[in-house]
């Protein structure tokens, strides 16, 4: 199906599949960050619902029935901007874009019980990924820990930068296992959860958070990570239309990130500027 038009070129579903298939295999687990509108103008005549179905179909056809597709549905429901502190796993909308909301509402996906940084998951291992045994967004037994163990592929689809919150998992691992970092700490959040079966109960969640009393400080900057991934040929940058699909893997990002933080604990940060990542917590 035709998806985009860019400088006289028609970009189809098959265009994406052909260009991405050398880097994504059947059975892969994908963690997606998506901005659909940078590749070009939406093709004439396609309906929004058809367009979203086709974007999903790109990744489904690439990984097949043995794979997994995961996308953020972050709601920050227990954060500083939330007065109610309620996370309804079925109905609380995410705040990270149109495709994640479409994906969250699909009948064949499940959302994990993280009131701050939830994900919607499709695939054969969705029950595994949906469990949050450690009650932590970025620590041991979190979804990030699980995708790291499987060496999932981290994909930025159309984003200007290679922007993955997986780096906060890397930061927390460094903080807990090597040396404490100065710009984040592990914070306990509390609120109410409404579960899939409608049960409502009070609960808690740990999240690696910025210091709210520090108005100025480091700002997330992934340029060093990108440069270092390129050096070791662990970043695939595929130009399609007016945008890129950038692909790396958890193990490479983790190893490069830890090595970088050992040399400079502010590896992921600008040293001057306003913090720009976890403003909701």
Number of strands: 15
How many domains? The number is 1
Alpha-carbon Rg, integer: 19 Å
- The residue fraction in helices comes out at 25-40%
Largest sheet: 7 strands, mixed
Specify the structural class.
alpha+beta
| Contiguous uncertain segments of 5+ residues | 273-281
Shape: globular
The secondary-structure element order is EEHEEHEEHEEHHEHEEEHEEHE
Question: What's the SSE blueprint?
Answer:
Layout: E1 2-6, E2 9-12, H1 13-20, E3 29-34, E4 41-42, H2 48-63, E5 68-72, E6 86-88, H3 98-105, E7 110-111, E8 119-123, H4 126-130, H5 143-149, E9 153-157, H6 166-177, E10 184-194, E11 200-210, E12 219-220, H7 223-231, E13 236-240, E14 243-249, H8 250-263, E15 269-270
Parallel strand pairs: 3-5, 3-9, 6-10
Antiparallel strand pairs: 1-2, 1-4, 5-8, 7-8, 9-14, 10-11, 12-15, 13-14
Helix pairs in contact: 1-2, 6-8, 7-8
What does this structure look like?
The protein has 281 residues and is α+β, with helices and mostly antiparallel strands. Mean pLDDT is 92; it is low at 273-281. It has helices at residues 13-20, 48-63, 98-105, 126-130, 143-149, 166-177, 223-231, 250-263, and strands spanning 2-6, 9-12, 29-34, 41-42, 68-72, 86-88, 110-111, 119-123, 153-157, 184-194, 200-210, 219-220, 236-240, 243-249, 269-270. Helix 7 (223-231) crosses helix 8 (250-263). It has one domain. The chain is built from 8 helices and 15 strands. It is globular, with a radius of gyration of 19 Å.
């Amino acid at each position: 199906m035709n998806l985009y038009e860019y400088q006289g070129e028609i970009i189809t579903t098959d265009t994406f599949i052909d260009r991405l298939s050398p880097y994504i295999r059947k059975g892969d687990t994908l963690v997606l960050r998506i901005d659909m509108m940078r590749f070009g103008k939406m093709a004439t005549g396609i309906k929004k619902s058809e367009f979203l179905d086709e974007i999903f179909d790109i990744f489904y056809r690439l990984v097949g029935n043995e794979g997994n597709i995961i996308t953020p549905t972050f709601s920050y429901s227990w954060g500083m901007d939330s007065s109610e502190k309620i996370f309804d796993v079925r109905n609380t909308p995410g705040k990270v874009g149109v495709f994640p909301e479409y994906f969250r509402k699909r009948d064949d996906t499940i959302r994990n019980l993280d009131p701050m940084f939830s994900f919607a998951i499709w695939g054969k291992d969705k029950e595994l990924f949906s469990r949050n045994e450690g009650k932590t967004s970025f620590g041991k037994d979190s979804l990030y820990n699980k995708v790291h163990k499987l060496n999932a592929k981290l994909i930025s689809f159309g984003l200007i930068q290679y922007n993955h919150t997986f780096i906060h998992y890397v930061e927390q691992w460094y903080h807990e296992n090597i040396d404490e970092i100065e710009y984040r700490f592990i914070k306990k959040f509390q609120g109410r959860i409404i579960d899939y079966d409608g049960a409502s109960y009070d609960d808690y969640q740990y999240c690696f958070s910025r210091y709210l009393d520090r108005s100025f400080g480091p700002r997330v900057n992934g340029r060093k990570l990108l440069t270092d991934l390129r050096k070791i040929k662990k970043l695939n940058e595929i130009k399609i239309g007016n945008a890129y699909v950038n692909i790396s893997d958890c193990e490479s990002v983790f190893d490069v990130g830890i090595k970088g933080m050992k040399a400079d604990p502010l590896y992921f940060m600008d040293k001057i500027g306003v913090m720009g990542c976890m403003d909701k917590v």
